[in-house]
Amino acid sequence: MNMLNKVWVLGETPESYAALIAVGRRIGESVEAVCIGDATVGAAQGAGADAVLVAASQGEGLVEDAAAAVIAAVGDRKPDAVLIATTKRMRLVAARIAAAQKTRVVNDAVRVWVEDGALLAEHMVFGGSAYSVEKVNGGPAIVLLGDGLLLNEPLEGLSASDAAPEELPAVAAASGIALVEKKPRTIESVNLAAARRVISVGRGI
Question: H or E segment at 42?
Fold first, then answer.
C-alpha cells in the first residue's frame, strides 16, 4: 500500500495550505486541514481539504494557546501523518505533538512518500552535504516540511471543497506564553562591499 488513510496538514499562514494539501493528496486517501483560528479556514477550503478542523485560539490569538486542542485531537482521531509547514512557532507545536504521542519530529523534509504503508521522509544532514531517509514505523508521523518542498509542489488538480469547519474541543491548558507588545519589524541592510572585515561562522562564506 503506497497511500496512507488519513493525513492532517497544519500551517500558520493561509498561503501555506495549498501546497500542504497538495503534498497530502500525494500520500493520503483523505486530507484534513487543521486551522488555528479562522484566518486560514478559507484557504483550506479553497485548496480542497476533505475536512476543516478549527482549533480556536484564546486570548490574544497566539498559536501556542491553540496547541493543546490540536495535541488532544491528534490523540483522539489518530491521523496517520501530520504534515506541518515549517515556521518558528510551528516547530514548537510539532515538538509538543510528537512528545504527547511519544514519537519524534522529522525536520525539514525535502521529499515525502509512502512505501508498504509507512511514511518515508528525506532531509538534509551534515550541513547540507548529505541526505538521510527516515522511515516512520507506527504511530502518527509528525513531519515539518521544508520550504523547498512546499514551494515546488505542483498545485494542479486542487479544487475547492464545501467542507464545513468543525471546531475542535477546547482544552484549557496554558501555553506559558503571554503577548506583551507588538512592534513593526525593523530591517537594516548591510553593505558587505564596503565592509573592511567580514567574519563568517561555520560553513558560511
Answer: helix 41-46
CA distances from 34 to 39, 73, 93 (A): 12, 10, 12
pTM value is 0.84
The DSSP-derived string for 4-18 is EEEEEEE-SSGGGHH
Helix and strand totals (H; E) in the chain: 5, 9
Q: Are strands 118-125 and 105-115 parallel, antiparallel or unpaired?
A: antiparallel
With H, G, I as helix, E, B as strand and everything else as coil, classify residue 103.
Answer: coil
* Residue 135, C-alpha cell as written in the block: 522511515
By C-alpha distance, which of 4, 91, 73 is closest to 34?
73
Using alpha carbons only, give the angle 47, 49, 53 rounded to the nearest 5 degrees. Answer: 125
Quick: pLDDT tens for 106-149.
999 999 999 999 999 999 888 778 999 999 988 899 999 999 89
Q: Are 142 and 78 in contact (CB under 8 A)?
A: no
